[in-house]
Amino acid sequence: MNTLPTPSISPDFWHGKRVFLTGHTGFKGAWLSLWLHALGARVTGYALDPPTSPSLFVDARLADLLDSHIADIRNAPLLAQTLAAAAPEIVIHMAAQPLVRVSYLEPALTYETNVMGTVYLLDAVRQCPSVRAVVIVTTDKCYENHEWHWGYREIDTLGGHDPYSSSKACAELVVNAYRNSFFNPNTPGAHPAGLASARAGNVIGGGDWALDRIVPDCIRAFLAGSPVRVRNPHAIRPWQHVLEPLSGYLLLAQRLYEHPRQFSQAFNFGPHDRDAWSVHQLVQYLCAKWPGASMTIDPGPHPHEAHFLKLDCSKAHALLNWQPRWPLPRALDSILEWLETYRSRGDIRACILSQIRAFEASSPHA
Ligand SMILES: NC(=O)c1ccc[n+]([C@@H]2O[C@H](COP(=O)([O-])OP(=O)(O)OC[C@H]3O[C@@H](n4cnc5c(N)ncnc54)[C@H](O)[C@@H]3O)[C@@H](O)[C@H]2O)c1
How far apart are the first and last CA of the chain? Predict the structure, then answer.
């Protein structure tokens, strides 16, 4: 039984806060932009154009709701200038090259974006006295994966088999060095902001159109009326709705702002064990609910992908009161609801906002 009080993302806290969000045109960035706007925050976004077409950023008409800058994270002077002009209190860094397969094709671009992008952002923050809290988004793949049956803790060894995972482990090391060197309250003249990193697993939700992710692959197949091609049916993933880690980032930013010393650390945000389903189970669930849907197994060969990876989230539970809220079937049903809205040309922004409200009203599920 859950004995923790319900974690609270406080509209009183977020109302009027100036937030600088990188990666706002992407999947997670679009959801977070809308949520922050609904909480009353004043959001400045910094990212390249939406990485997919269609995109949630365009479908939900997000450019109307925030101060959107389409620019490269590797352009350090422009990044610093844009951050300084926005004078944010909170910075959330999500801009990245986030795909394992692309990282095999474009390793240098992946490292430039994910590692040097983080360096440039933190350097810009150092010059910006208004900032009080910085959350750097990495991934569960930053750990050295031993295919263990227990979850990785924040103190476990960093690693990464492929360039994407390794680039995010490098970003974690960058965060650590900047925290020790420039954001350390024991260092005279240090920047007063709290600096934390957030590691989450495979997220799913309406509006993700990325290539080589299984839920978008299902969506494209359903809309085309063709079978879903499944690459790694037995791979088990810690699936979670995109609102789960986003709620963690918001709570973490709140706590960092209030208590920068205490919360300047790494945090895992993953689902409960029972939501670690195989790819096959997940596709089967969606196919059973979408009329006429079916799947076929693609025998490969495929590039290396980790088979089993789960996070131990005891720290986020204990220190942030963060808990997952939607069991996996609830998360998958919300994707089908979004898909029906998309297919029938309904109001995507209204659909996403109503899902955010439903999520806020849900209790943690133990
Ligand atoms: N989606 C997942 O399952 C997942 C899991 C773990 C971690 N993450 C992390 O969450 C973050 C967001 O992921 P997503 O799924 O929304 O990815 P996405 O591809 O949908 O969005 C990426 C965003 O980064 C921006 N971007 C890419 N290169 C850039 C550059 N050079 N300069 C400026 N902006 C650039 C894109 O324009 C876009 O706004 C990433 O840091 C990713 O590594 C995602």
Answer: 6
